[in-house]
Every structure is written in C-alpha cells, then in structure tokens.
UniProtKB/TrEMBL annotation:
A single cellular component GO annotation: cytoplasm
Native source organism of the sequence: Spirosoma sordidisoli
Protein name listed in UniProt: GH3 auxin-responsive promoter
Superkingdom of the organism of origin: Bacteria
Stretches assigned to the GH3 middle domain: 295-361
Domain GH3 C-terminal: 387-492
GO MF entries: acid-amino acid ligase activity
Amino acid sequence: MAVIGELLKRAIDVYGFIVSDPDPVAAQREVLLQLIKKAKLTAFGKKYNFSQILASDDPVQAFQQAVPVHDYDRMNADWWHYLLEGHQNVTWPGGQQYFALSSGTTSTSKAIPVTDDMLEAIRKAGIQQVMSLKNFDLPSDFFEKQIMMLGSSVSLIEKDDHQEGEISGISAANIPGWFSGYYKPGVEIASIQDWDERVHRIAQEAPSWDIGSLSGIPSWIEMMLKEVIAYNRLNTIHDIWPNLQVYTTGGVAFEPYRKSLETLLARPLTYIDTYLTSEGYLATQKRPDTSSMALMVDNGIFFEFVPFVDANMDEAGRVREDATILSLAEAEENTDYVLLISTVSGAWRYMIGDTVMITDKKRAEIQITGRTKHFLNIVGEQLSVHQMNDAMQLMQQQFDIEIQEFVVSAVRKEGEYINKWYIGSNRTVDNQTFAESLDRELRQANKNYNVARTKALKGVEAEVIPVEQFYRWSEEFKKLGGQAKIPRVMKEADLLEFGEYIKSLS
C-alpha cells in the first residue's frame, strides 16, 4: 500500500506540473460559449435567441442583454416545473435523472435539476481538488487512507421518472467504482435515513477504518466525532484514526467551529475549504497560504457578479432588472458581490443567494461573505454574516467560550427596534455583559452599524444558550445531517418563534 500511495502522489505531482491553471477570463468566455451552443435548441435557448448570441461580436455582452436574471422562484415558475412534470429540452438538452432538494437556510423547499453533465462537472471538480493536494505537502501514505464523507443519505427518493435527494447524497450515489474502496462510511451506512442511527453505526464501525480525511459541514462532522469518541471511550479522535490529517469543509464558514472541533483532536488538521451547492461545485481551496477558494472557471459554470449595494437589490433581496452586472473580466477585488451562475444543469443567470468577495482576480479566488437574505439591514445596521463571524471569534477569545452557532434578528421592543441574538455555546456567560461586548465590537468594526445605534437601533440583547438547543430545533423543524444549515439571520416572526421554542426547553 505504501507503494500505491507513493505512485498516487507522484501521479498527482506530474499531472499538476503538466496541467496548469487556465486563464480565468479566457476560460469563462469559452465556458459561456459552450453553454449557449449546447442549449441553443432548448425551449430556453430558442426564447432568448441563443443562436443570435453565438453570432454576436461580443457574446458575453449579448448574453447579458438578452437573458434576464433569475432566482429559484422565477426559474421554477417559468421553466423548471415543466421538468418535474416530465418534459425535456426545457433549459438543458434532454431530461435528468436527479433533482437536488435544497435544505439550506431558507424554509422554502427547492427542487433543482441535476443533469448528467452536472454530475460529470462535479466529478471533474473533485479531481481538481485532489490534484491541488500536491500544494499541501502531504506525506505519501496519506493517499492510501480512507475518506469519511459525511453527507446526506444516498438512499434517494424514487419518483416516476427521476430521483430526489440532497446534492451530497446524489454525488455520493454516483461516485466512480475505483473510489468505493476509499469511501466511508460506505453505501450501506450512508443509505440510512435516520441521522442518529447512521452516526451510531459509524461509531460502531470506526475501529475497523483507517480514515485519513474528513468531508462535511462542520457542525455535523463535530457531532459525528463526539459520538465516535464517546462510544469507543477515547480521549481524541486520533486515538482511533491516528492517520487523520485533512478536513475538507464547506457549506458554512469554518472559523466559528475551529476552536470546538480542535478539542476533539490530538493535533490540528490541514483544513481545505470547498464551495459545493445544490446548483454545482463552484470553488475549492487550491493552496495552503490562503483561506480563499479558486472558482472552477473551466468546468461548466459561468459566473457573474452584482455589486451588493442597495441600488442593485429590491426589498425582497433579489437583483433588480436594471442592476449593474459584471463578468469576471470586469469585477474587482475586495468588493462584495451577489453571485450569479449559468450552468450545465440549465440554470441561467441564476442567483444562488450567496455574496462573495474576489480576493485574487488573477487566480479567480474568492471568499464567501454571506447571504443576500442573511444580511441584517432592517434599520441601517448593514451587518454581513462575514462581519458577524469575525465578531464571534473575538467573543470566543474574550469570554473563553466556544461559539458554534448563532442567529440574530431586528425585533421590536416597546415600539423600538433592537437586535436580538441567540448564541449557541459550550457554556453560558452573563447575557448582558456579552451583549454589551458584542455591541461594542460591532460599533468599532462597522461604521454603518455605529450610526444605526445612534438612531433607530435602540439596543442589543443576547441569550447565550447550550448549542445542543440549536441542534434540537434543527432536528425538529429542519433536517438534521447532510447539508442542513442553521440560519444566521431570521425574520422577526421566525426569531420570536425560535425564542419560544428555546423557552420550552428550560
């Protein structure tokens, strides 16, 4: 096996040497041309004259002028509902075997088409991620070890002409045969629908596995590791998986979870961030000296960037018809953008709801800065999730606690608006002291928030609660495991309901 590991490492090194990263701008133009050419005879392509766009001197500009921006509701109402009714050649040639069910931070259920071309693009993105491991100086024996991919159940929902499930489950159900020997927990355990039962089986089988890397959302990875440690009566996870070296994270920001996760380890891991959504595999971290991720610029997805300013967004958090929209060639570094994608699954100028910042344009590297609908700006606070995460890291240090989850909303109290926070931690602290410290930090870090605090935002309240209460709420009202995420920002009514649920637990 050591020989196999050395051969794999050498093959990756050689492949990475031969195949260099493409020029992002040129690659993106070519991707758009391929998308338009393949979809020109679909119902969508005919409506928006894709053949005419292809003949244009500037196809990128022609595409942007001809095709409107879509969010899920518009895409589904105008086009995708036909796919669920069995129609083909709607927004992409042919039909599809799968629909990805979104279980993200919104309450609205979404069914997003996953074509064969998208599955192939996800596989290619996975290969790019593996190839980039050459940059992380990992030992040869790492490439012999097994990979724990903790996602959604691979037991998909059978419909008349397709299957439905979360994107991680669909991807795991389609892993190539050669990879099955490396993949854990394996199809049998990964097919278990019940989260607690699935994790219990992982804990039982854990001693027989030699795990070298983990992959999954931080909160669920942490819960799984705790169960394995408790069931097998260990001090750290390295007692049972001594060769664990890499954690591939994604779905949410990792930093808020780092402190609590590392209490379960004998030594820190190599952390690699990824950007896999229900709509596709968008980006992956390719080098160790940055926390940014490189967009998959040559793999079936065309990216556009909308400056995240009030003039470009409507009251519901959607991109306005007359918004300024930029290609990668036109976008700038260190600016918040709403991300639009056009893909080989037939999503066109589609707003996935994330905001990003380009940190290195030459490398097409980005960081996720938040969600368009999870940007707190009820009375002028203009707080992004990115800023909230930074503040929580400082609160962890100041109060010597672990903060794994939090949620906030602007709520009315005695006729005035306040920001109400619930903080999920490993232990409680004085709520008033915490609120004052959090408020002080946000006022120093965000001038808009500081102005709001002198005007319409009259106060800040915080309740520090056991993080398990967040997970109990998630299990009861959302989906536990897989790609389920806990929101960072709620509407006032939703937060009040959340607060009532928390009260019921005490």
